[in-house]
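Q: Hi! First time doing this. I have a protein sequence and I read that you can turn it into a structure. Is that right? Here it is:
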Amino acid sequence: MAQKTLFLILLATFLSILSISFWILYESNIESVSDYVEQTSDDFEQTSNEFKSTSNKFEPTSNDIESSNKSTLAPNVPISIVDEHTNEDSKMEVVTAAYLNIHYYIKYLKILREQHNKMLYDILHEADLAVANTSVYSVTLKTQLAPSKDLHDYMSLARYFWPNPETKDGLPYIRRDGFSNPEISSVPDYIYLRKLMKDIQYLGLAYFFTRNDTYVKKAIYRLNEWFIDPKTKMNPNLNYGSLIKGFEFGRRTGIIDFRPIYKIIQSISIMSSSKSWDNKIESSFKKWLTDYYEWLTTSKHGREEHNAKNNHGTFYDVQATYILQYLDRIEEAKEFGWKALKHRVNTGILADGQQRHETSRSTSWFYSVFNLQGLFLLAERTTLLGFDGWNYRGNNNQSIKTAVDYLLPFALNGGEGWKFKNIAGFKFNDYIRILELSWIIWGDDKYLDAVETLRPKSKLEQALGSHEVWEDNSLCIWSLINEKSLWSCFN
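A: Yes, that's right. Below is the predicted 3D structure, encoded as structure tokens:
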């Protein structure tokens, strides 16, 4: 309890500093991230030195630390200061004043400052790269056409399918679950789509922090290029997603290619207040999404993916809920999202927390974590729409939290005791993100303790290069300080 109280106090102080920093940035029209970081760092050091000048009045001892673990008060605050007659605001003032006089406060504030600066640096760096990038993102650039022969039809190849050794031409390809065929990169539509969504995410966040319309203009350019311009646009369907070579149509599983659409939707909500925002472009994008949603819910692929029992069905629900909300079809979003969350919890999570449709895969650990990401996004949306998705319990008392807890002992033991097929081993970075957010959502300190234990393993994974593509965790800081704004965290 003491740990959580300290965290909340530090978080409140950090957000205050953050707000002041935004004001400084806006007023002084700072354009480069290095200037911004340098200015905020100087401001912090001055404040930090002022705090340090008073902190030498108190040097924490082991007895003090033990005492602080038993009380929500700082160890140098007499218990008699706060009693049942003291109102909550006064209690907070006393506690805050106490923490200002100890060395630990400076240490933790410095850590928060460093995290904030790194997050900001990474966001603006990626956004600046996106602005400077003059290459074209379009489905029309591929050299292998979809079976429709329409250059504007999106196409991707099935990830786990390989040439058939039993046939002369290798067709049709056959499945090797868990083994990615590098040939999938020969059709670049998927690569460009992911770049598009990543760029717009960073451009939106960069605009939030700087109010620099350059980022908005580039995002509008990319939206027009991919969804609207007759020369480069994508048709609003995924008929040829996850195509198996040797077949004439794609598969319903290709719909998961579009799962990060929520990043574009959320970034638009940030940028739409800009004076440079183009309402005409957004109207055209909404028309495209309306047509896509019609295909998503009526096509054979769409209906089959909706009925999928595993992560494919979960991320279908995430797509549909976000799109409905963005299109201002709020009542439909509420009904669909809440029904979907209840269904996924009841059919996908067992009483002990095992996600049975994910543990049946050959890369069972990865998919157990991956499906949790989808459930977190779905819970965030349904909660925003008025339902407590985080704490919903199914018919066997199972919940999203139960699924998080099921994985925890295996993570702490390096995967020991995991009884399911798992050819890809145990990687912890994505699960650590789940744990960090779990602490924010449910407030159980066991999640923080687990993060402390697992973080070195995650750093080792990074150092050894065991991730094919390492996504930095800076955006998760944005999720944490905004309490449950998870859309920026999961890549």
